[in-house]
Amino acid sequence: MASMKPLLRPQHLRSVFSSATASLSIPQVFLSQSLRRSNTRAASTSTTSAQKAPPQIPPPTPLIPDVETFLTVIGRDLKQHASKIPDWNSLFTLSSERLRELGVEPPRSRKYLIRWRQRFRQGQYGIGGDLQHVEDGVAHLRVLEAAPGADVTQTPRKYVVNVPSNRPLRECDPAELSRVQGYHVQGAKTIVGPYALPLKDTEGACITVTEGMWEDRRGHKIDGGERRRTEVRYKRRIAERREARERGEL
User: Fold this and answer.
1) Secondary structure E strands in the chain
2) Is the peptide bond before 106 cis (omega within 30 degrees of 0)?
3) pLDDT at residue 183 above 60?
4) Cα distances (Å, whole numbers) of residue 91 to 63, 98, 184
5) CB contact at 8 A, 145 and 151
């Protein structure tokens, strides 16, 4: 029986694989590509974070022009510490340790203040934070009717705007009118919303800076809270039965 010659000899295979490996250098290619992708992602992430990073010291707003007003609106009796914080920059740069040294107590008040500082940096204001015209802590609101032919699905027929103090609506330039969120018109001309008080002898309403108007209300513990509720109620039942026995009811 005739023997068949192999198509490729072993030495040929070795030469082919060695040349292919040398020319491709697959690990180096994948490594360089992965490094390039990592660098690209890192660069894009740093650029995005730099663009979205809130300012370290945000500018005051018309409603919140100073430290005392800021501490007043966030509530929790923090207004009493206004004299301990010298200026606006210090309000947003003092650390928790430094606030403790200045006498801002208890610790939960410091945490609450720091939490509201971060919100303010990010533009997350409470009610009235978008007001543009505030004088001596008072802002005036008026009812503005939409232009004829306006799309009622996009703009209500009547909405609330903030106007400069002591200025009738008809005398205000359209650029001076700013729509206010959180308030709406009820009926013909009644402005409804938090802390909105009707003006006497004229149409509209006013908002006055009030202590605690941005405050996050704390819950109240009932019967010692969730952890101690069973124990507190058990002791209460024992005391009630003891009193009933003393009165001869049991």
Assistant:
1) 138-145, 158-163, 178-179, 184-186, 190-192, 196-198, 205-208
2) yes
3) yes
4) 16, 11, 34
5) no
